Amino acid sequence: MTDQSLTPHSLTPAKPRRPFFLRRGPMEAVAVTVIALGFLMLFQPFLLVLYTYSLVTLLAGTFMFMIVSKFPE
Amino acid sequence: MTTSPNSYADKAAEVAARATPERLVVRVRALSDRAIAWLFIAPTIVLLLAINIFPLFWAIYLSFTNFRANRPNAEVKHVGLDNYTRVLNDPDIWVSMQTTAHFVFWTILLQTLIGFALAYLIDRKFRGHAFWTTLILIPMMLSPAVVGNFWRFLYEPQIGLFAYAVSFLTGIPTSEIQMLGSVNLAPWAIIIVDTWMWTPYVMLICLAGLRSIPDYIYEAAEVDRASNWRQFWSITVPMALPFIMLAVLFRGIENFKMFDMVNLLTGGGPGSTTEVASITLKRDAFEAWATGRSSAFAIVLFVAVFGLANIYVKALNRVKQR
Transmembrane segments in this chain: where (chain A) (predicted)? Predict the structure, then answer.
């Protein structure tokens, strides 16, 4: 009888994976993308409406980054 | 029988302890290590709160009000997000943001390329390299006010050395070389001065990075018959990259706030071609006296730089981990 949680290469049971929105790596990448987007919106010369919403985007990205960077690896 | 130095120290400590009043001894003993640590860092924390944190929170508070610094006794009303709405819908401020982006992009690009190239040359340790390092570092040590004033003289169309040199090399009459008066040339005049002044700073950081690369890595590469080109791209650049990134971060943050040089050289002109965000901010705050609105503008700039610094620190950590 074998344990389903054992991987072929180790005898320790594999940890259950966290859901996507609680994982630090991918969520940090999302936050950085949002910040970069906000930054580009703030300095782009094409559409005033993008400039108008740049601060909200930047704030959302920055707060998200501050929260998700505290998640465990 | 001999007495060791330690026993002398113990005796001295004992004598000193006896001489200390009993009440003071009890009070000092009562303080934990943690309390003593707090006692030492408390003045720094108080100073930091007073000169950094408090003004930031005060500016955030003012950005939600109609406060005007030239009318301190007038009633202060909360206007909600009105100041932010006005700043983020103003086409003039939008244009000043683009001017800032143009200025920051070109200064950082030029300073990084020239700074790294100079550091690479200085790192060769040729004869007299210390003298050249000192000479290159001089512009960085000057005050921006001094630099702004003497570059104004250098850019003078009639008597300026810059105009004379360009005229000598290109044949264009000096009267036509209006670096500060031309709409097309004025932004580049500021970029040239900032690059001249701050390239040594980037060079210094890059030089620290290059000097930190151990020689044995190059020796191993030579044993493997790697070409100089290959060594440069596979050893020098990757190992100096964290330092280059730090230099870019420092210069980026500084250039977003650039005020003194632009104010001295062009004052934002001709027209508004060199009106970077900090010049617009100063006009809003101290000419229009719209303190609340200018505080909102300052917070927008702060959020932009803070967000960028977050991305940058993450990228820097990733490069360091490689």
Answer: 25-43, 49-68
Contact list, B310 vs chain A (CB under 8 Å):
32, 35, 62, 65-66
Task: Tell me the per-residue pLDDT of B193-250, one tens digit each, with 9 for 90 and over.
Answer: 999 999 999 999 999 999 999 999 999 999 999 999 999 999 999 999 989 988 998 8
Q: How many CB atoms lie within 10 A of CB B17?
A: 9
Question: Quick check: is A2 in a domain?
Answer: no
Structure confidence by residue, pLDDT tens digits, B107-164: 999 999 999 999 999 988 788 888 888 999 999 999 988 999 889 999 988 888 988 8
Cis peptide before B43 (omega within 30 of 0): no
pLDDT, mean over chain A: 81
Q: Structural domain tally of chain A?
A: 1
CB contact under 8 A, B311 and A45: no
What ranges do the domains of chain B cover? Answer: 5-55, 82-321
Q: Is residue A16 situated within a structural domain?
A: no
A2: confidence class by pLDDT, cuts 50, 70, 90: very low
Q: Which domain holds residue A47?
A: 21-68
- Length of chain A, in residues: 73
Per cent of chain B over pLDDT 70 is 94
B300, A55 Cβ separation under 8 angstroms: yes
A50 has a chain B CB within 8 A of its CB = no
**B99, B185 Cβ separation under 8 angstroms:** no
Residue A14 lies in a domain: no
Alpha-carbon gap: B93 to the closest alpha carbon of chain A (Å):
10
Reported pTM: 0.79
ipTM tops 0.85? no
What is the CATH code of the structural domain delimited by B82-321? 1.10.3720.10
H-run or E-run covering B244: helix B237-256
CA distances from B129 to B56, B137, B139, B210, B244 (A): 44, 12, 17, 15, 21
In a domain? residue A73: no
pLDDT at B38 over 70: yes
Task: State how far the Cα of A38 lies from the Cα of A61, in Å rounded to an integer.
Answer: 8
Spell out the residues 6+ positions from residue B258 whose beta carbon is closer than 8 angstroms to its own. B100, B103, B194, B276, B278
Report yes or no: B115 and B137 within 8 Å, Cβ to Cβ: no
